[in-house]
Design the sequence.
């Protein structure tokens, strides 16, 4: 009987310990569930640089408004995944056109990022304010800088010619300010507004001005997209050469006479009307009226219009995950 009582006592102790263990385990599991994220992945705030280079000049970003300005835009580009990835893919096709023109006009290479934030590198995009093309010119401004805009032609949608026009504006603004950040801000707000606010607010740096939100954000958007483009992997973008849009080789046909039917013209050159429009987005109508002007129409190489072999052209080696 003594042995039996001892056994029962031991059993009771064991059951008590088990109950305590289960209770503690239950409380731990509840705590874990309470503190476990309910989403599939973690969201990490991008590292905010204390300074960065823009057009060869170091920009100190430690002041509160500058730190928070770049932080906002970096977070936006880092987590707007599909849009940012598409921008890098498009840049592989369009930067080879833009960069040599900037260089030939003595414009810093960093201004290619202005085109990125202006239009998402879309040659035909139109803003609510009716600014058109990769460099987002209003009609009057485009004409002032040498672009032809007629019923059948809109050179704001010609990547090369609109880049040339943008260079004219950027050079003019730099002659006025002697500062590339001010030049960038003026592209958004206009030279008159930037100059007026500098005088009114008694500031020499555009980054210290109180402006409408769009213009205050504008330089930081350029700074931020530059950071992402120069180190995509750091911001979570993994790209292979075959993911990038390759440039398509074209031959240029000089035209100085009207073309009554562009669909027939395309067919004569072995391409579709859509191909003609895509590679010549400045053609606004189904016909071309030259008005005495001379144009160059691009005809794409038909062998390069298919993704039947992987792209191997990588314009910037930093875009390729290795």
Sequence:
């Amino acid at each position: 009987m003594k042995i039996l009582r001892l056994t029962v006592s031991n059993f009771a102790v064991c059951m008590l310990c088990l109950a305590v263990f289960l209770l503690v385990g239950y409380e731990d599991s509840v705590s874990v569930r309470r503190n476990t994220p309910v989403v599939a992945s973690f969201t990490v705030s991008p590292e905010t640089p204390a300074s960065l280079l823009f057009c060869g000049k170091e920009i100190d970003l430690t002041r509160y408004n500058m730190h928070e300005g770049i932080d906002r835009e970096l977070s936006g580009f880092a987590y707007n995944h599909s849009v940012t990835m598409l921008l890098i893919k498009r840049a592989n096709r369009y930067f080879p056109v833009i960069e040599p023109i900037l260089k030939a006009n003595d414009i810093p290479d960093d201004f290619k990022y202005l085109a990125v934030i202006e239009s998402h590198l879309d040659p035909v995009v139109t803003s609510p304010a009716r600014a058109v093309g990769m460099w987002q010119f209003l009609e009057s401004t485009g004409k002032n800088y040498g672009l032809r805009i007629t019923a059948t032609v809109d050179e704001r949608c010609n990547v090369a010619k609109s880049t040339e026009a943008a260079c004219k504006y950027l050079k003019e603004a730099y002659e006025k300010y002697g500062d590339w950040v001010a030049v960038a801000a003026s592209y958004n707000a206009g030279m008159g507004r930037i100059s007026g606010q500098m005088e009114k607010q008694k500031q020499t740096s555009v980054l210290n001005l109180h402006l409408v939100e769009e213009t205050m954000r504008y330089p930081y958007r350029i700074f931020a997209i530059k950071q992402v483009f120069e180190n995509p992997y750091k911001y979570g973008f993994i790209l292979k050469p075959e993911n990038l849009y390759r440039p398509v080789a074209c031959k240029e046909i000089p035209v100085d006479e009207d073309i009554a039917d562009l669909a027939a013209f395309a067919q004569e050159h072995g391409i579709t009307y859509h191909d003609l429009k895509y590679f010549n987005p400045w053609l606004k109508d189904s016909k071309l009226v030259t008005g005495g002007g001379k144009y160059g129409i691009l005809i794409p190489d038909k062998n390069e219009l298919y993704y039947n072999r992987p792209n191997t052209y990588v314009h910037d080696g930093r875009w390729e995950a290795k």
Observations:
- The chain is about 50% helix and 5% strand.
- The two ends are 76 Å apart (CA to CA).
- The chain has a mean pLDDT of 91.
- The first strand starts at residue 51 and ends at 54.
